[in-house]
Design brief:
Radius of gyration: 16 Å
Organism: Sphingobium chlorophenolicum
Pfam families: Hemerythrin (PF01814)
Number of helices: 8
Helix content: over 70%
Domain Hemerythrin-like: 38-144
Strand content: under 5%
Distance between the termini: 32 Å
Largest sheet: none
Shape: elongated
InterPro entries: Hemerythrin-like
Protein name: Hemerythrin-like domain-containing protein
Length: 178
């Protein structure tokens, strides 16, 4: 972990696991089966599971494979969100939209940097842990506020269009997301 990573982690402590669980539960209660928010929550759960697999991997081959899967999930998911959901944030939520783009770009860079490290090294483990914390915080922000506000504010016709478009973008960018 770089010095900058350590400083950022020290001044922005992550929310607790309990707080993240409560936010996801609230988002699940808000989402309607199959709508754009439901699809996103499913992807977030898949991303969490991919982090679990990467952390549990014990040899270099397993870690490399798990990282490739995680990277594909993160990239496909972020492309779908950026194409469908973030433009809706641009209307009245420009601050959260800009932050969302930055966070997702940073995650892509961190995955690329992880690919350059020895998968059995402590640096790899530390960077994966840092990436997981950053992604968990990003997901919390989306599930706890950013996307819930959109879900309540947008009219049904826009929500229906987003649901269809999100499904299309998911298919376009990632076969690993269901």
């Amino acid at each position: 972990m770089s010095v900058l990573d350590k400083v950022i982690a020290a001044v922005t402590p992550p929310e607790s696991a309990e707080t993240r669980i409560k936010a996801r539960e609230e988002a699940r209660r808000t989402a309607m089966s199959g709508d754009w928010l439901d699809q996103i929550l499913t992807h977030h759960e898949q991303i969490d599971a991919a982090f679990d697999r990467a952390e549990a991997a014990t040899d270099a081959g397993e870690r490399t494979t798990a990282l490739k899967e995680l990277g594909a999930l993160l990239t496909g998911h972020s492309m779908a969100e950026e194409a469908v959901v973030y433009p809706q944030l641009s209307h009245d939520h420009k601050g959260p939209m800009g932050m969302s783009y930055q966070e997702q770009q940073a995650a892509k860079v961190q995955v690329a940097l992880l690919e350059e490290l020895d998968p059995l090294s402590q640096d790899w483990t530390d960077k994966l842990d840092h990436l997981r914390g950053a992604v968990a915080h990003h997901i919390y922000e989306e599930e706890g506020s950013r996307f819930l506000k959109l879900h309540e504010e947008l009219p049904p016709d826009v929500q229906a269009r987003m649901t269809q478009r999100y499904r299309e973008e998911t298919k376009r960018y990632s076969t690993g997301l269901a």
